[in-house]
Specification:
The complex is a heterodimer of chains A (119) and B (109). Chain A contains one helix and eleven strands; from the N terminus they run βββββββββαββ. The longest helix of chain A is centred in the C-terminal third of the chain and has 7 residues, at 96-102. With 119 residues, chain A is mainly β. Chain A has one helix at residues 96-102; strands spanning 5-7, 10-13, 19-24, 31-37, 44-50, 53-57, 64-68, 74-78, 87-94, 109-110, 114-118. In chain A, a hairpin with a 6-residue loop joins strand 4 and strand 5. In chain A, strands 2, 4, 5, 6, 9, 10 and 11 form a seven-stranded mixed sheet that branches. In chain B, the strands form two sheets. A five-stranded mixed sheet of chain B has the order 1-9-8-3-4, with no helix packed on it. Chain B has strands at residues 9-13, 18-23, 32-38, 45-50, 55-56, 61-64, 70-75, 84-91, 103-108. In chain B, strand 5 (55-56) and strand 6 (61-64) form a beta hairpin. Chain B has 109 residues and is an all-beta fold. Classes of the chains: A mainly beta (119), B mainly beta (109). Chain A binds chain B through residues 4, 33, 35, 41-45, 48, 56, 58, 88, 90, 92, 94, 96, 99, 105-113, 115, and chain B through 32, 34, 36, 41-46, 49, 51, 87, 93-102.
Chain lengths: 119, 109
């Protein structure tokens, strides 16, 4: 059973460019969340997708957008890249249906991340 | 989501139990305590979570005080591969996870 996968592993872009990161959730999961982790900091929540819609959003500008596909995979898009967007971008998946049925709390499983460097 | 407080860093001798404390004095009744760890430059790894009762799995044990204001993660026999940053999170779940700065655990040979 494959866990959460992300692509690419590393990416180098220049300021002003746009980038798309991809995530495939763990088998059986229907919800995908994206996090940004700057060097030396804990991960910061960007947004969460469920049923192809943005369900929650953290304190990130509109330059950060996402999409979820019918197969539950997801993309994170960042426009007009800034130097400060350099970070490890993490995808996490979970099952909202399982949460509602079991009422046992959410468990999010993380992928290995995509390291984005903006020059 | 309740704020959690953890020590910045801890050391533990290899083979000994590692006890990582976490304070969450403002936790509400429907908030779970989650523990994740992150080994350098990898994605966070889920360890364990609980609501009221103590929990144990193949990785660790979670001890939650009766008033739920604090908890301890126990790694029974720490190995060098347990060196990581450990995050304690208190929230209702099915929401975004709020990571603080965590505890940097160093297992010493």
């Amino acid at each position: 059973d494959a866990g959460v996968t992300q692509s690419p592993t590393h990416l180098i872009k220049t300021r002003g460019q746009q980038v798309t990161l991809r995530c495939s959730p763990k088998s059986g999961h229907d919800t995908v969340s994206w996090y940004q982790q700057a060097l030396g900091q804990g991960p910061q929540f960007i947004f969460q997708y469920y049923e192809e819609e943005e369900r929650q959003r953290g304190n990130f500008p509109d330059r950060f957008s996402g999409h979820q596909f019918p197969n539950y995979s997801s993309e994170l898009n960042v426009n007009a890249l800034l130097l400060g967007d350099s970070a490890l971008y993490l995808c996490a998946s979970s099952s909202l249906l399982a949460i509602f049925l079991a009422a046992s709390g959410d468990t999010q499983y993380f992928g290995p991340g995509t390291r984005l460097t903006v020059l | 989501d309740a704020k959690t407080t953890q020590p910045t860093s801890m050391d533990c001798a290899e083979g000994r139990a590692a006890n990582l404390p976490c304070n969450h004095s403002t936790i509400s009744g429907n908030e779970y305590v989650y523990w994740y760890r992150q080994i350098h430059s990898q994605g966070p790894q889920y360890i364990i979570h609980g609501l009221k009762n103590n929990e144990t799995n193949e990785m660790a044990s979670l001890i939650i005080t009766e008033d739920r204001k604090s908890s301890t993660l126990i790694l029974p026999h720490a190995t060098l591969r347990d060196t990581a940053v450990y995050y304690c999170i208190a929230q209702t779940g099915a929401n975004n996870l709020f990571f603080g700065t965590g505890t940097r655990l160093t297992v010493i040979p």
